[in-house]
Amino acid sequence: MLKGQPKGLFVLALANMGERFGYYTMLAIFVLYMQAKFGYTEDQTSTTFGIFLSMVYFLPLFGGLLADKVLGYGKTIALGIIIMFAGYFCLAIPTGVGTGAQIAMFGALALIALGTGCFKGNLQALVGNLYDDPKYSAKRDIAFSIFYMCINIGAFFAPSAAEGVSNYFLEKDGYTYNADIPALAHQLQNGTISPEATARFSEMAAQQGYTGTDLAQFGDSYIASLGQSYNYGFGVACLSLIVSMIIFVGFRKYYKAADKTEKEKQAQRDPNAVELTAQQVKDRLVALGLVFAVVIFFWMSFHQNGLTMTFFARDYTQTSVSGFDRFGFSLLTLLPFAFCFYGIISLFQGTTARAKGVGALLALVGGGCAWWAYSSFPAEMAISPQIFQQFNAYFIVLFTPLMVAFFSWLNKKGKEPSAPRKIGIGMLIAAIGFILLAVASTGLPTPEALKGMGGLSESARVSPNWLISTYFVLTIAELFLSPMGISFVSKVAPPKYKGLAQGGWLAATAVGNYLVAIIGYLWGGMPLWMLWGILVLCCAVSAIFLFSVMKKLERTTRDA
Fold first, then answer.
1. Which of 99, 254, 404, 431 has CB atoms 3.0–4.6 Å from 8's, for a disulfide?
2. What backbone torsions phi and psi does residue 33 show, to the nearest 5 degrees?
3. How far apart are CA 304 and CA 471, in angstroms?
4. Angstrom distance (rounded) from CA 283 to CA 554
5. How far apart are CA 142 and CA 205, in angstroms?
6. What's this model's pTM, rounded to 2 decimal places?
7. What is the C-alpha to C-alpha distance for residues 45 and 307, in angstroms, rounded to an integer?
8. Are strands 320-322 and 380-382 parallel, antiparallel or unpaired?
9. pLDDT tens digits, 234-293
């Protein structure tokens, strides 16, 4: 998988991994932060979340234009890192809960979105440029799988980092995390709390060691402490961006030759520059537009992980695990198990005795360390809602090599699906993921009914394995769709529109991310199984549409 790749790929992938670690650390706690600190309703949270995500993925359209027409890729990317750093720094500053604090938060989000617009699409375009060289062109799909895998290595560690930092500072104030306390505190402030919920709130205050009788005072103190702990969690992103900048600038020599816009290539008469007819340009842009239209609905569904799936983890999923369920909720088991997993792959795929021996050693040591860590866990472990977001990234890190091997095997047999066909298959798999969540939600009270109850008891909550299974299926869907989509854009985009085309892919993602809020608006009186069913329908219909225009897409892909 790694053999024969240009060194520039690893430099760019590592720079991106650092930036994504910071981004997903922030995203893991962002929704929880808004509701806990400011008392935002589901509608307000969904609107803010949807607009922010849409801007993060829409502004690369303008970042691509800036790079293509003015600054070039490298300078635009560096500018993006600086702007993002300013945004995360502002978000990390502890503030009050008034209007000024909310304005400061929105300003920080605007900077993060603007910086990401300069950074994200242009970094992907730079990776694509590495594979315009005929020596590497056949490795383009594998390269983007590696690139995508590195993104998710950063994303995997992010929820644990957010949880660790937040819990550390919360515990310094003498508190432990309880997801129900902020909501009940805001209900008390607003005068909407029921007698049943008041009784539960009083019990929770006592569990936190509060001996007074003024529940409002306790609620204010807890919210202030939790909000500040989230601020410090956001600060992790600042550190990760410093690392990204060092990697990107310090190792520029490895990708310098690819840091050329199409205008610069033509000026230098680069032999790799492709001349297309007006009709070819039109056909490619139409093909890109059709794919963009479909992936909108994938991202609308997939990025529920940061919104309604986080609500589901917080309000409906068990808050502690025991038995073997504990295995998946600690880095002490997940990391060595990953080494064990890779060792097993090397044992079977290795072509030399040394490779097989190293694989066997990794499998034994990794498996042994994972089991030793697991055996030392307490009988019951508390889990927080944001930790579930690690599973998508972890599954991507685990299964990317298998997917690459699987597609390589199909390629040798002449049966590998085209990139558009993989995207269509990914949409169908995503529909299956939300079917699982619909089944898990059958019989659960609506979110609106839950508020009057003051929350569910532990025994009434569903097993965390339902969410983990959903993340697993969505990960397989993502591996069929996202890295293949980025590679498809890189390959099909007319040369003079490469930065713009990558921005267009991200702009389509932006529209999907804005539509994420639509599902958030339905979080209230609608039965949960019906809410997830809407996402099943969106994914299935999108897949059917894509397969209906498949011949046109595959013809354009072959000609590219």
1. 254
2. -65, -50
3. 11
4. 12
5. 53
6. 0.77
7. 8
8. antiparallel
9. 988 899 999 999 999 988 888 887 777 666 655 555 555 556 777 878 888 888 888 888
